[in-house]
Design brief:
Blueprint: H1 2-12, E1 22-27, E2 30-36, H2 55-66, E3 70-71, H3 72-75, H4 81-86, E4 91-94, H5 121-132, E5 136-141, H6 152-165, E6 170-174, H7 182-190, E7 195-197, H8 207-210, H9 216-229, E8 235-241, H10 247-259, E9 264-269, H11 286-299, E10 303-306, H12 316-321
Parallel strand pairs: 4-5, 5-6, 6-7, 7-8, 8-9, 9-10
Antiparallel strand pairs: 1-2, 3-4
């Protein structure tokens, strides 16, 4: 009866929704609306991937879990995990697995780490990278706004540990914004990563919903300051599409990234990790990704990796290699 009364109220107000657009739950005997979301949209064929498996996948999982390490591949539920782990590549996520921010697109667990840092983590990352036979290593982290330096010191220690353990390796770091602190950025740059990556993620208009706690202008400033502090270290940034932005807004972001000297840009389709994250507004076609790539190159960005399944560290080694014939100025 309560369900019928609630439904009748909707009808009388002229706002009766389609049943597929509502999520409900029972609470204390009453039917309560908990979210409004668009009807489920089937993923197009070009976004379907194989389930993880195979000997390399199993071996990498054993190594990583044996070292009590986290990867963004698992924590963010990356669709490319099966392919990447099958080729013995993974992105290490340091500073724990609790993020102090609540981005609307991200599946990484949220919480309050209360200043805890594992000082042995850099050595375990180096040991795992050596056991995996890696020569190109990507290191990222959760946001750690509870730390004075945002975790910059542990990034630097991890780079140093990797250099000691695998002298010929290349290291790419995907860093948070450190709340705009130049000292934290310089700490990372002094450790000499091969690539400094910081993702702007989306267009400025969507920051309030998609990147709560972050600021578009602060991210651009970090990328600009990185080139000012260490011009010889290439910079990189990434964008998701499908959150409700326009093509013109994306081109404006590409123009901004070129303006602060970014060398590599990645563009990929946003895929909703679970019902707890923002819904997908639409799926871009491969042709639209190709058009975005052409726009980036036209604007002067040196390498643009654009495709439905592209992620920031997807084929990262090949992206960096594409710069090898150019002189960084």
């Amino acid at each position: 009866m309560k369900i019928l009364r609630l439904w009748r109220i909707f009808a009388e107000r002229g706002c009766l929704p389609d049943a597929s657009e509502l999520e409900w739950k029972f609470k204390m005997g009453d039917l309560v609306q908990i979210a409004v979301s668009p009807a489920r949209v089937r993923r197009p064929e070009w976004l379907k991937v194989r389930l993880p498996g195979g000997d390399n996948y199993v071996d990498l999982k054993r190594i990583l879990h044996g070292q009590a390490l986290h990867t963004v591949c698992e924590s963010a539920r990356c669709p490319n995990m099966g392919e990447c782990w099958g080729h013995r590549t993974a992105t290490f996520m340091i500073l724990g697995d609790l993020c102090t921010r609540r981005c609307g697109f991200c599946a990484v667990p949220k919480g309050r780490p209360t200043g805890q840092v594992d000082g042995q983590e850099p050595e375990r990352v180096a040991d795992a990278a050596a056991a995996m036979g890696l020569r190109y290593i990507v290191v990222t982290s959760v946001d750690r706004d509870d730390l004075k330096d945002g975790g910059a010191t542990l990034f630097a220690l991890t780079i140093a540990a990797l250099r000691r353990r695998i002298p010929a390796c290349q290291v790419e770091v995907l860093i948070p914004d450190f709340r705009g602190a130049d000292e934290a950025l310089e700490t990372v740059l002094r450790a000499r990563p091969d690539i400094l990556n910081h993702n702007v993620e989306t267009v400025p208009r969507l920051y309030a919903v998609a990147r709560r706690g972050s600021r578009y202008d602060r991210s651009l400033r970090l990328l600009r300051r990185s080139r000012e502090f260490e011009p010889s270290i290439p910079t990189k940034s990434g964008l998701m599409v499908g959150l409700g932005e326009t093509f013109e807004e994306l081109v404006a972001v590409l123009r901004d990234l070129h303006g602060v000297g970014v060398d590599i840009v990645t563009i990929g389709q946003y895929l909703r990790p679970s019902r707890d994250q923002l819904p997908v507004a639409r799926f871009y076609t491969p042709e639209e990704f190709a058009a975005l790539r052409q726009e980036g190159l036209r604007l002067g960005i040196r390498h643009v990796e654009s495709g439905p399944l592209v992620r920031s560290s997807y084929h990262a080694h090949e992206q960096t290699k594409s710069l090898s014939d150019c002189v960084i100025v």
